[in-house]
Design brief:
By secondary structure, the protein is mainly beta. It is built from four helices and 19 strands. It is globular, with a radius of gyration of 17 Å.
Length: 255
């Protein structure tokens, strides 16, 4: 099932589910009990929002061998985690804004796990019980600032540097799905999630040994090789098999 958030013609924010190209409202709490109403709202008539409002955005670095090689770094022996601020979130069709502080902003296509249940010290074999579903993400990075700084917060944390969407797919086996990224229809990234160094259950177990995971939290699971530059006027399209396509334009930030 595809879950989404949207803004109606009346500018009201709603939670719904998608049936082909029609949206039905959801009554109740996505993380406990809810019911689906009839799908009678055309998708084309609404504005999609970020499909979830997380308390934390947890990201994994260097989780594909070929990406580590293209960055000339070692593959980590334990998951390498960092955080993005909530203010970086950007929905479907939102514009990624290139900040004046950076001369090299790049895309990073990623599968994103959405936590559905609070947990700490979650065993890997039980990780699936704590996941609501999966969405598409772009871990936009100011690469020059990432390399310049001793840590990654600035290079990863600008406003609009965390596009997610278009919705959450609750019925997905993430073990072997294809991730592709195109910029202006040019194929930049293509790989399967089976190439991850650390699997999603391993990531959930590791992260939850450090911090409590809350409903709605996002785990960006790492990007495959092929990251490249984003320039003003570009159109980035990230597709994950079984979920859909996240589309964002690229522009310049006006100070």
């Amino acid at each position: 099932m595809k879950l989404l958030r949207f803004r109606s013609k009346k500018k009201e924010e709603k939670v719904g589910w998608l049936n082909d190209d029609m949206i039905g409202l959801i009554e109740g709490d996505l993380f406990s009990e809810y019911r689906r109403l009839e799908a009678n709202i055309p998708l084309a008539l609404v504005q999609l929002l970020e499909p979830i409002q997380p308390s934390k955005i947890i990201c994994i670095g260097r989780n594909y061998v070929e990406h580590a090689r293209e960055q000339n770094v070692e593959v980590p022996d334990v998951p390498e985690i960092f955080l993005k601020p909530i203010s970086a979130l950007l929905p479907q069709n939102g514009t990624i804004l290139l900040p004046p502080q950076s001369q090299k902003v790049e895309h990073e296509a990623e599968l994103v796990a959405v936590i559905g249940k609070r947990g700490r010290w979650i065993p890997a074999e039980e990780a699936h019980k704590y996941i609501l579903g999966y969405t598409v993400g772009n871990d936009v990075t100011a690469r020059d600032l990432q390399y310049r700084d001793a840590q990654w917060t600035r290079g990863k944390g600008f406003d609009t540097f965390c596009p997610i969407g278009p919705w959450i797919e609750t019925d997905l086996d993430p073990a072997d799905v294809l991730i592709t990224c195109k910029v202006n229809s040019e194929l930049r990234q293509m790989a399967s999630t089976k190439e991850m160094v650390f699997t999603i259950p391993q990531l959930v177990a590791f992260i939850s040994s450090v911090m409590t995971l809350d409903p709605g939290d996002l785990i960006f699971t790492g990007t495959p090789a092929g990251v490249g530059a984003l320039n003003a006027g570009d159109r980035a399209e990230i597709t994950i098999e079984g979920i859909g396509t996240l589309v964002n334009q690229v522009g310049l930030e006006n100070r």
